[in-house]
Each structure stands twice: as C-alpha cells, then as structure tokens.
Amino acid sequence: MDNKLLGVIIIGFGLLILLSEQEYSWIFSALAVGIGAGFIIRKTEKDNIKK
Questions:
Q1: Position 18 in a domain
Q2: Measured between alpha carbons, how far is 44 from 11 in angstroms, rounded to an integer?
Q3: pLDDT confidence tier of residue 3, bands split at 50, 70 and 90
Q4: Does residue 24 lie in a domain region?
Q5: Nearest-5° Cα angle at 39, 29 to 36
Q6: Which pLDDT tens digit goes with each residue over 10-40?
Q7: N or C, which end of the chain is more exposed by having fewer CB within 10 Å?
Q8: Residue 45: Cβ-neighbour burial (10 angstroms; 0-12, 13-18, 19+)
C-alpha cells in the first residue's frame, strides 16, 4: 500500500471520529489527521542508489 493512500485513509478516519459525539473525540481526530498528514508528506526512500 502506498504511503499517500494510507495517509488519506487515516485522515478520513480522523474526520469520521471528529463527527462522533464522544467527549474527547477531537483529540483522537487531531492525532489521526496529524499522523495521516505525516504519511502524505514523508518522502519515499529510493532503493536504487548505487554504492
């Protein structure tokens, strides 16, 4: 699974949590959106570097 796809899924999950009516859902939503954004922004490592 690509990092960007995983990031979008985690952000979507965070937005769904935000819409729930639990007391501290905004905290878990913020964590999920932050982690998802980190997966989207993170650069992929290149394996084809010659040594």
A1: yes
A2: 19
A3: confident
A4: yes
A5: 10
A6: 999 999 999 998 899 999 999 999 999 999 9
A7: C
A8: exposed
